[in-house]
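Build the 3D complex.
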Amino acid sequence: MSANRKDIIAAIATPPGIGALAIIRISGEKITHLFPALFKRNKITPRTAILSNIFHLGTGIQLDRGIVIYYSSPHSFTGEDVIEISCHGGNYIPKSIMRGLLAGGIREAEPGEFSYRAFMNGKLDLIQAESIAGLISSRSEKNTIGNLKNLSGKFSRSISLIKQDLIHLLSTIEHELDFSEDEISFTKTEYIIDLLKDVSGKINNFLKSTLLGESIYSGIRAVLIGRPNVGKSSVYNALLGHERAIVSPLPGTTRDTIETWFEIRGVPVCLIDTAGYWESGDYLDSLGVGRTTNELNSADIILLIDDKDPSKQFEALSSKLSGKSYLLIKSKEDINQTVSKNPDVIYTSAREDIGFNNLLTCLSTSIDALHENSAGTSANFVSNRQKILLEKAYELLEEVIHVTQANIGMDIVSSLIRDITDILGEMTGDITRDDILDNIFSSFCVGK
Amino acid sequence: MSSIIVAGGGHAGVEAAIAAAKLGVAVELITISVDSIARMSCNPAIGGLAKGQIVKEIDALGGIMGLAADVAGIQFKMLNKSKGRAVWSPRAQVDKRIYSRYIRERVASTPNLTVREGEVVGFHTRAGAISSVTLSDGTSLDCSALIITTGTFQNGLIHIGHETYPAGRFAEKPSRGLTECLIEHGFSIGRLKTGTPPRLKASSINWEKTDITNGDDDPVPFSVLTEKPFHPPNIPCHIVYTGNSCHEILSNSLEDSALFSGKISGVGPRYCPSIEDKIVRFPTRDHHQLFLEPEWLGADQIYLNGFSTSMPRELQLVSLRTIPGLSKAEIIRPGYAIEYDYCQSTQLKRSLETKLVEGLFCAGQINGTSGYEEAAAQGLIAGVNAARKFQNKSPLTLLRSEAYIGVLIDDLTTKYIGEPYRMFTSSAEYRLSLRPDSADLRLTELGYKIGLVSENQYDIFKKRLESIADIKHILHDTKIKSSAGNNMLPAEKELLHENSSISSLINTIPRLSNFTPEDLFTAETDIKYAGYIAREKKRIEQINNFEDFVIPPDFEYSKLGNLSSECIEKLSRIKPESIGQASRIAGVKPSDVSVLAIYLKR
Ligand SMILES: Cc1cc2nc3c(=O)[nH]c(=O)nc-3n(C[C@H](O)[C@H](O)[C@H](O)COP(=O)(O)OP(=O)(O)OC[C@H]3O[C@@H](n4cnc5c(N)ncnc54)[C@H](O)[C@@H]3O)c2cc1C
Ligand SMILES: Nc1nc2c(ncn2[C@@H]2O[C@H](COP(=O)(O)OP(=O)(O)OP(=O)(O)O)[C@@H](O)[C@H]2O)c(=O)[nH]1
Ligand SMILES: [Mg+2]
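Done.
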């Protein structure tokens, strides 16, 4: 990226083709000299929306009429002078305005260049920049809310607070290491341990509340299980609306798990078909090995299917399923009709396409419930990188608590705490590592 | 003509002169009085927290301080033993007379090194490089490098209560001229102060009322060259405590203290405060501990460690006499404060050559540090680099992750020193890698390559490396019964237990008794610390990218409009040599560092 150029850049900031309106963003150190040619105006009051004609910088021809907002440096997204033009959408008008700008010597921005300038100008910290990257690629609306939350810096601030606590503790420890035994009286180990435990608790809470952020980033995992030949793959195909899994009258058709992504009301869902477990005394054992078990463990929602009585199967499996969110599905209702229906079971027939609307609704409700349970309103949405760092910090905290308790050496305690503060600093961008920078900005798209 | 002139025969000067001469360059050491070469201005001790580590590093690189301390030591003690092996710190009480005599002899017997009594009052440059120095008697001497190591002497001013007079140190006259010459060449000069306690007459002390503190029974020498078994004297020191009546006298007379009457413009060290400072800053403490340390073997002169002061003589005496054991104390020499010029250390490269004048190096207290060890370490590096410059070789620089000396010099060259800089273990963020017992393992190879470490010292080092490797092999290959259960496990695994030690394994593995306690100790520590050290190494690798990332010396920071003006100002003034260094300058934010890194990369 042309980090060092200070020229004026412009780009269409809205996705191509869609929408009645498009936004064109222009940023540069000084851009007020564009006003006369671009808008036939000498001055525009900053941060005020005005209705204006928009002209071609080369030919002077009028291209459109739209809302223009001017943000003066440094009070803008990039920290430079910024103009945002809301013009008519579609394919033609935004592009012709862009051509008009390029004709005036303005350069088309590279992907992420606006955010990059914002970062360089200290307008964004690393987490915020990362959130923008997440915002752009986020597949769903809920995800967007999470990213917006990060963008406001709330998460950075909480992490910074935790880091402050640790740095305070560290300076106490260091202070004591800098004096010989007889010069000062020492902080009690219990005090240090209490503080570490407190911090570790906070990090753990973060980890818990970030599960949602993570599941939204990587999608909800819904796993289909059931005995062989009960019609799992058929339900799978019916839900997806196309033939994805092979269906056959032979039990044991599905040998490996199959994953397919689809969306339910804006939430990305990964639907997973599995091999059936055998109905024998040892089918719990057959669950104990192989991929199905792994899938079960990482599942957010389990769809338990049976062509006779799913509730009965559920009882048999309850130990494996405890604590998981699940749906009970009765299959093949066209041939094995249930007489007395159980309100907790969803009755379907893949052959006759019965019950699948109901199944989708139930799935959607479960997803919502999942979100509310796991996070409430205080959820933090973190990227995978951030989550890995949080986990590392938590692990190290457990270790440093042990080292302190076992009285192994304050030099090691201090070294571990430094490590943890470094990790937290890496999360908030207080510690600079160029590989991270490169990664974040390379995932941007044009106009951000 | 000598190629290198060293101005000042203090702790920095002697290391610089000997190192440069050893590297084969003709050196002249010019100092005001030959008798006072390597004189210890203040306390009769070498080493201590973090400073002990520095002494071991100096020794590993081929310097002389460690040997001198071993020869002159009269009590050895490992400090901080309760707090983890990386912060253990060796310290020795030394006989000041033996110490400086030993070094004078070494200076006299070093080939290529001549000594001249005289005072350097100025220098001259040709085309931006040092060309000659001038002495107070008018002599002019040509040279291609000058190392200034004049300590507390430049425009020195002693304060004792209301009394003030020019001096470089007690009973020694100050030196003048160099400061003015530095200013003429564009350097910025500041003012600092430090203090020293009174010296008492031993026969006037009631020793029965004092507590005794002894040295270690198993003394460990600083130098690997010191012969073993090592049986230095173990002379006890004594402890007394100040009390409320002492505090009252002092706090009622603060306006008489040179420190508090506002007479001293220099800033003093926060960590080595005067007694009046301690009383003001810790009003709730009803006593302070004082050590009575002999200045030399059989001395009638006792150094009162902890009672540094600039009170008038009478008040020093009156307040001292309130202390149990000192009721009849007589003062041989009063405590005093000294104010002196220093040359701001951010004007130095990491080689300790100044950025402004080629061939001009500064080392020791002149750079704003305090302490013999800090001075000696800088002297060694400056001496080596002056010689290497003369020989057209690249400078020797140490990273923060390699040595306390690296931390010291990096701090000096990136931070504004507002108070006398003293080394602390907390300044070293890679402390686990900088253990005192591993100093020789870290640095001897380097010292040998440079040419400072003798064949003999290098052999000792290689033997030690081998022994440590052998011990580790034995511990790896031998299975023993676990203390926790009944299973068999490799001895090295057993060592990881918090409560197990290598000494307890000697019975089970008799072969271990063939090794020295030092080698066993290091092997044991390496094993016990391995996991933590590995993690620290990762951290080091991450930053070393930035350490290797060179910023051109003529880089124009103002080109980068994205940097704040404060940051541009700081960077332009300090001119860091690498991105790593830039990142440690106060006022340079992480985002500035990324801006800089990315700009320079593309
Ligand atoms: C009063 C006092 C209190 C101190 N208190 C402490 C303390 O509490 N803790 C601590 O760690 N350190 C203390 N020190 C500091 C310690 O003594 C010094 O840090 C250390 O000695 C500095 O070493 P140096 O080589 O830089 O200079 P010095 O040891 O001061 O040696 C300078 C040498 O240069 C010579 N010289 C000076 N000017 C010239 C010239 N123009 N030409 C030729 N020769 C010259 C002098 O004669 C002297 O031999 C104190 C020093 C003093 C004087
Ligand atoms: N009548 C009827 N037959 C169905 C229905 N769903 C599936 N089947 C039949 O049941 C048999 C097994 O269906 P699959 O979907 O392959 O079952 P499965 O559970 O995935 O089987 P395995 O992968 O072998 O464990 C096939 O012959 C399907 O045609 C249904 O709703 N009605
Ligand atoms: Mg199947």
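The first strand of chain A starts at residue 9 and ends at 12.
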